[in-house]
């Protein structure tokens, strides 16, 4: 496969929103309440892109995944019930979603690998993320990718499992 990870453009919002809508429906069909409250939505995606934090995973010309990637920008993480592994600069991963046709191919893990490379390119060696308590697929992806469970954070009144991965510095 010919995967690339790059900043998204405003023109790509319709394809990104289609991927997120499928993910929202998939979460609902799995009995999850994650993403069932009108978030994320096209305005959130547009804001991500305008702020330079919206990224797409592509296979050739096709957009097959989406994620928001922020640096040191998640106020909720300051209020963790638990303890982060580090207190240095960090990259935040939000809104990971994979196209319906590509589910089950390990692409969330590939997105995380691209984000690790992005973090290293910015001389940042910590990645923090969170997911809903019932998002078993994402929790498994974090665990397989070497993330450590650090505690709980709260978004819009709901607890979420918080994870961190410390990246090795290049030799």
Automatic annotation (TrEMBL):
Q: Which InterPro entries match?
A: Acyl_CoA_acyltransferase, Bact_Acetyltransf, GNAT_dom
CDD domains attached here? NAT_SF
Q: Which GO terms describe its molecular function?
A: acyltransferase activity, transferring groups other than amino-acyl groups
**Keywords noted in UniProt:** Acyltransferase, Transferase
Q: Which Pfam families match?
A: Acetyltransf_1
> Which residues does the UniProt record annotate as the domain N-acetyltransferase?
3-170
Q: Which PANTHER family match?
A: AMINOALKYLPHOSPHONATE N-ACETYLTRANSFERASE-RELATED (PTHR43877:SF2), AMINOALKYLPHOSPHONATE N-ACETYLTRANSFERASE-RELATED-RELATED (PTHR43877)
Protein known as: GNAT family N-acetyltransferase
């Amino acid at each position: 496969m010919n995967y690339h990870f790059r900043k998204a453009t405003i023109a790509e919002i319709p394809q990104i929103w289609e991927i997120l809508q499928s993910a929202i429906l998939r979460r609902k069909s799995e009995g999850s309440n994650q993403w069932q409250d009108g978030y994320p939505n096209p305005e959130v995606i547009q804001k991500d892109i305008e702020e330079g934090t919206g990224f797409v995973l592509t296979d050739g010309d096709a957009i097959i995944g989406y994620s928001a990637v922020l640096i040191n920008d998640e106020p909720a993480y300051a209020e963790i019930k638990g303890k982060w592994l580090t207190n240095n600069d960090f990259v935040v991963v939000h809104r990971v979603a994979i196209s319906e046709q590509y589910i089950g191919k390990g692409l969330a893990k590939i997105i995380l690998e691209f984000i690790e490379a992005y973090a290293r390119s910015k001389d940042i060696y910590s990645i923090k993320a969170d997911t809903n308590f019932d998002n078993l697929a994402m929790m498994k992806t974090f665990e397989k990718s070497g993330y450590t469970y650090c505690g709980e954070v709260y978004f819009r009144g709901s607890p979420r499992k918080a994870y961190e991965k410390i990246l090795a510095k290049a030799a």
